[in-house]
Design a protein that fits this description.
- The chain contains 1 helix and 3 strands; from the N terminus they run E-E-E-H.
- It has about 60 residues and is an alpha+beta fold.
- A 3-stranded antiparallel β-sheet has the order 1-2-3, with no helix packed on it.
- The longest helix has about 35 residues.
- It is elongated, with a radius of gyration of 21 Å.
- The protein starts with a strand and ends with a helix.
């Protein structure tokens, strides 16, 4: 993911890039934020599904004892 910081001139949330000691700020666009939010939601849903499957497997293993 990109480094994000508050722009010192306008105060908006911006992506920062450093090249040769010079820092460049570029504003985060709504489309970019929505896209990344969607990707994070998908990743969280995948993690949740895997965690539920592991929890079920653990309960089955504990029932065998």
């Amino acid at each position: 993911m990109s480094d994000v910081a508050k722009c010192p001139t306008c105060g908006s949330i911006s992506k920062i890039k450093e090249k040769d000691g010079h820092i460049t700020y570029s504003a985060v666009q709504d489309e970019e934020a929505l896209k990344k939010n969607g990707l994070l939601k998908k990743a969280m849903e995948t993690f949740k599904t895997k965690a539920e499957a592991l929890e079920k497997e653990l309960q089955e293993l504990n029932a065998l004892k």
